[in-house]
Every structure is written in C-alpha cells, then in structure tokens.
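JOB MANIFEST
job_type = single_chain_structure
chain_count = 1
residues = 155
[input]
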Amino acid sequence: MMRDTDTTAGRRRVKQLRLVVEAEDFDAALSFYRDVLGLPQQAAFEGDGDARVAILEAGSATLELSNPAQVKMIDSVEADGRPSARLRIAFEVEDSASMTTELVEAGAELIATPRETPWRSLNSRLHAPADLEITLFQELETPETRHTRPGFTRP
C-alpha cells in the first residue's frame, strides 16, 4: 500500500494535477477564471481551426475523494442539501464572501451563500462559466491549529 510519504527514487510520482475543461465560450471562461478569480496564466497556445488553450495557475492541487455519504453531508452543510455535481472544483481564497460577490457580478450563478462549516472554513457554492460547479472556501483557522485536530496531517 502506498502512503503519502512514499516516493519513487526519492521523488513524488505525480508532479502536477491539471484539470482540463472544455469551454464553449472560451473568451468568457478565460476572463472569468483569469481576470476575475485571479488565476495567473502560465501558458496559452493557438492552433489550426481556431483551437485555443490557456493554462491557468491555481496554487497547489489536491484530489479530494469522497464517498456518497460524505458528499451528501457536504451538500447539506455547504448548499442546504442541494446535490452537487459529480465533479466540483474548490478554490481556497482569502475572503470567500467578497470573492463570491465578485464572481456573481461576473456571471456566476449563486447556489449557496458563504457559511461556516464544521471543519472551520467559510464556504460558498456557485455555478460558473464552462459549466463548472465551484466551491470557494476560506480557512478560518491557522494551519498550525488545524493540524492539531484529528484527521489532519502535519505540514
């Protein structure tokens, strides 16, 4: 069984998580995620037939795997029980309340207003361009405090 500390030849086996999203309205999606949410553009390429891609930096990446009972519990806390999409993207931000307002003003549909969760974050949920469901979360405690609680690992 591989643990989070296991590596191959002293290196992590996966170096980057990249989520690839098809955006029907590419310009609107790019403006929303790059200019409003603030994800810096790492690279952009154009090809034949109006093919376009932009790679946006989103800080560190994690893959959160949840069983159906956990998803249902998160939906009840975060969105008043409204079921989430099978894939939902969560962005940690400095101020989830103000960022939620900015994103709604930029065209996102508000699903749930920011609310404090039992795991001490302030979460909101939105339906965003490129048909993505997103959660904005703001951690309400320091990493040092968080890592003293059961279930969290040390930094």
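[summary]
The longest strand covers residues 109-116.
The beta strands are 41-47, 51-56, 88-92, 109-116, 121-128, 132-139.
exit_status = 0
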